[in-house]
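Task card 7
Instruction: Convert sequence to structure tokens.
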Amino acid sequence: KKNPRRMIKSPDGQAILTTYWQSLYSRKTVPAAASPSPIQFFTGYTSPIAMDTNQPTNTLNDPNVQYVYGLTMFLQQGMAQADIENFLNSCYIEFKLSGKVQWGGQANELPAAGGLTGFAAYSAAGGPTFEAQNGSTLPGVMYPLTVEGRPIFIRSQQLFEVIATFSNAVAFTAAFEMTLKLQGVSGQAIVG
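Output:
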């Protein structure tokens, strides 16, 4: 039995094939007490490993394309609560395509598509209770970037940028690690 290829059309009419859900992700670490502004995702890697990024440059190689349906942000587990609060209360993120802002907003608007979720409680009778589970990693858990159901389309060799800036001076107490994901569908353009 043949494996059927799913073909869809891009906004510019170019046919796309071999589409599949694929998040483009970029993990950045800010050293303790260092000034984190600005943080540029998808660029600046010297020897990235798979845990750092699956897209080490901010352009896609020919013939790759990306349909971006949403954004997510994951903050590394185990970081100090005060550092997380500093980040969420002062970080502004922009997603640009060919220099034009496609989305801009506060980091606290971006959900995590995975990671540890749960609660902690204490009762005099039962003592401390901690309940946790791994968050959902489904592609639908994201801040949506679609307009009238249409995703943002990144062509081969088109510049895309995701930049985090801070409204006030932030100095993290320990190394601060975050992963930004462009949730979407990857594909390869038919070059004709």
